[in-house]
Amino acid sequence: MRKLIIATKNKGKAKEFAYFFQRYEIEAISLLDIEPHAPEVEETGTTFMENAALKAETISKRYDKPVLADDSGLIIDAIDGRPGIFSARYAGEPKDDMKNMLKVLTELKDIPEERRTARFICVLALAIPKQKTIFKIGYCEGRITMMEKGDNGFGYDPIFVPDGLTKTMAELSSVEKSEISHRKRAMDQLDEWLRNNNGEGFHA
Which CATH number do you get for residue 101? Predict the structure, then answer.
């Protein structure tokens, strides 16, 4: 089976990507599997695309293997696109999902439901040795709730309701979430690229 390194130590994210890649007969392993104590790549970019490329290219050079990195975040219209590229650390260090959500809910406390529009974005960067980095982008449109609900997700999932639904991302099953998520939509684009290129650069 072909192998791919997922540039993350986030167990939830690693599990999602592993689930997606099973259907493509690609074994997705994470940094937790190969080097759990490796230093994280510093995200010094000013855009999601720059940060995804930094992670993918740095780790691909380190191991001389194909690497997929993502930079994902939440963009909220009513607060000028925040938390944006700072989504993971919006409430400061160390990363804390609950503190991040509470900060967002506090900033939106006077914002009515119709103005709480938001979207998750996922930028995938696929770095294959000696090839140009590939980028794919997916969005999931929705709105921010008044309070957190559900415990089946991570990040901002408990306060985000996708368009057309009444449940938060964290109230959906893994299968339901995987069909509509921003990662799924970016992965669909990556799947098309893989099929058109016959998985060039991947090895068993």
Answer: 3.90.950.10
Residue type, position 146, single letter: M
pLDDT one-digit tens code per residue, 128-182? 998 999 999 999 999 999 999 999 888 999 999 999 999 999 999 988 988 899 9
Is 155 annotated in a binding site? The answer is yes
Domain count within the chain:
1
Instruction: Look at residue 156 and tell me if it is in a domain.
Output: yes
The token duo for 84 is 């944006």
203 within some domain: no
* Burial class of residue 102, CB neighbours in 10 A (0-12, 13-18, 19+): middle
Distances (CA, A) of 96 to 66, 154, 155, 169: 30, 10, 9, 18
- Residue 57 inside a domain? The answer is yes
The response to whether 42 counts as a known ligand-binding position is yes
Q: Is 64 known to sit in a ligand binding site? A: no
Domain annotation covers residue 182: yes
Full domain range(s) for residue 30: 2-196
Asked about 71 being catalytic, the answer comes back as yes
> H or E segment at 51?
helix 48-63
DSSP SS3 for 197: coil
Question: Per the residue annotation, which of 64, 70, 71, 96 is the catalytic one?
Answer: 71
Whether residue 20 contacts residue 183, with contact meaning beta carbons closer than 8 Å, is answered with yes
- Report the DSSP beta bridge partners of residue 27: 3
According to DSSP H, which parts of 8-127 are helical?
11-22, 31-34, 48-63, 97-107
